[in-house]
Amino acid sequence: MTIGRDELLRIAGLAKLELDPTDTSLVDSLQSILEYVALLDEVDVSDVEPTNFGAPGFSRDREDEPRAGLTAEEALRNAPDGLEGQFRVPGVLDS
Amino acid sequence: MTDLTALSAAQLRRRLAAGETSAVEITRAHLDAVFARDKDLHSFLRVNPEAEDEAARADVILRTGGGGPLTGIPVAVKDNLATSDLETTCASRILRGFRPLRDATVVARLREAGAVVLGKTNLDEFSMGSSTESSSFGATRNPWNLEHVPGGSSGGSAAAVAARLAPLALGSDTGGSIRQPAAFCGVVGLKPTYGRVSRFGLVAYASSLDQVGPIARSVEDAADLLQAIAGDDELDSTCSDEPVQDYSAATRLGVEGLRVGMPREYFQEGLDPEVAAAVQSAAEELKRQGARLEDVSLPHTRYAIPTYYLVATAEASSNLSRYDAIRYGVRAPDSVRLDEMYRKSRGSGFGDEVQRRIMLGTYALSAGYYDQFYGKAQRVRTLLCNDFREVFDCGIDLLLTPPSPTPAFRLGEKSKDPLAMYLMDVYTVTANLAGLPGLVVPVGQTESGLPLAAQLLAGRFREDLLFRAGAAIEQAFPAGAPE
Fold it and tell me: Which A positions 41-80 lie with beta carbon below 8 A of chain B?
């Protein structure tokens, strides 16, 4: 399996990461890691169920009761840009 | 006058109870040690400016005859655990300046117990690393030899405890991040059973693997710290309501009659001879005290690293999608469009290793590759869990293994080769994949003076067995001190 430049950019797009176009070390390291994880190809898992959680059985939900959450002021305390009690972001739509 | 930083938490507690010292004196002694000695180590990212005030409040409780085992005892906290109003960065540029609104549950429990939060310790960025070299704020060094790494990702916590800058520390362990640095720094480190300790306020890396646990200079201290933080938490739906054992009592029970398995797959090619000899010495000590040693097999061990790096990076790519530079985090300037702002902020805010793992995880989860990578890894994970279950179902109480293939390696030795770094986790990732508890205890030093250690693994919620065997090994190999 080879990761080409187009594939790398596709993944970076999904991950919302701006990559340095001159840096080849990332693609090289991903390539060697993917070659290594191909070791799993030799395991037959055709009758094996997947394990999704760290332990079975005790992921529990609490009762759905209203509780106090963060105030708008608290929620904005760590925001890089806020205005009038709201998060402010760059443009989403072309004008 | 006694150097208070040389004492264990249990020894400090006895002095406090006897009125021979105060919490303020203890905290000042450790802060002075940080200011005097941490310039070379860089184990702390910041100290808590309120530490002395917290100690003064502990003294009030102690003077009125109140308090518990940790009242007035300083604890260093890994900087991926939320501390209310005290900057919490995960050693990442993207979280610089972030001030949590609440304490993590483990930190809240420490404060309720009267412990003093001394400061926040360095880590590999977002816990992604095995050497603490991927911290965006500079590497931590090993107090036994400054040219070597302290291990990672909880390298700051382990180095701080080893260097007597704190008697106790909290770390987190996703693939060995408490146990491997404990081994490299010659201290005691425990990864609890998945679900034993609340993760509310632990910044998520890989949610099916992460656990918070103690780092200390004695098994007794580690047991006391676990006692304070373990137990159900309604703020974490994955936290178990299984009753919490008396860990301190367990440290005094001995190992007579326990069956200790040594998995042969953990003693094969690539294991450093001095590490192998150390584990063998620990085995002989357990045998001398009445345990029975047995050869056992965990046949899927060779698949643990590829399984771990697919599961962990897939979960990381999902968890780290929250860093959008809108609700929190450092936003890259001068973006006209929203999508551009996401890409620039994340591209400049995350370091190389974090970006590599997000990319790998995104790839493993993406359409067309999911079954081949992530789905496959989840199934092999089941086989790894079954290996352990079969061994414990046969009546084996504990497993004894090396914690890492080598002692602490040199700074820079592996940082340019990510795969070589990943392979260092071969003996620790299995406990995370299977949700089991694991304890690392010191077992002397190499000829060149670097710490050696052994790892004990047990069945789910059998931390008591780990503390019994850990205390037994400690009798023959008490933790040493770097010069």
Answer: 43, 45, 48-55, 58-62, 70, 74-75, 77-80
Supply B387's token pair. 């290996």
Calculate the CA B266 to chain-centre distance.
21
CA–CA gap between residue B425 and residue B175 (Å, rounded): 7
Q: Tens digits of per-residue pLDDT, B306-335? A: 999 999 999 999 999 999 999 999 999 989
Q: Partners of B457 in the beta sheet?
A: B399, B438
Beta strands in B227-279 (DSSP E): 259-263
The per-residue pLDDT for A23 is: 80
B135 part of the active site: no
Give the C-alpha distances (Å, rounded to integers) separating B408 from B37, B186, B196, B417.
Answer: 20, 10, 29, 16
- CB distance from B191 to chain A under 8 Å? no
Task: Tell me how far apart the alpha carbons of residues B184 and B179 are, in angstroms, rounded to a whole number.
Answer: 9
Task: Look at strands B188-191 and B211-216 and give their pairing.
Answer: antiparallel
CA distance B54 to B44: 19
A21-79: pLDDT as tens digits: 788 889 899 999 999 999 999 999 999 999 988 777 666 778 889 999 999 999 999 99
Kind plus residue range of the DSSP H or E element containing A6: helix A5-15
Q: Is B348 designated active site?
A: no
pTM confidence score: 0.97
Number of CB atoms found within 10 A of residue B241's CB: 12
At residue A57, the 3 state secondary structure works out as coil
Domain ranges of chain B: 4-259+408-414+437-476
Q: How many CA atoms lie within 13 A of B321 on its CB side?
A: 14
Tell me if residue B237 is catalytic: no
The DSSP line for B105-151 is: HHHHHHHHTT-EEEEEE--SGGG--SSSTT-TT----BTTBTTB---
Whole-number Å distance between alpha carbons of A46 and B37: 56
Residue A83 sits at the chain B interface (C-beta within 8 Å): no
- What pLDDT score does A55 carry? 77
Q: List the one residue out of B119, B111, B36 whose CA is nearest residue B76.
A: B119
> How large is the ipTM?
0.95
Domain B4-259+408-414+437-476, CATH: 3.90.1300.10
Taking the C-alpha atoms of residue B384 and residue B262, their distance in angstroms, rounded to an integer, is 16
Kindly report, residue by residue over B381-424, the tens digit of the pLDDT. Answer: 999 999 999 999 999 999 999 999 999 999 999 988 999 999 99
Closest approach of A84 to chain B, Cα-based (Å)? 14
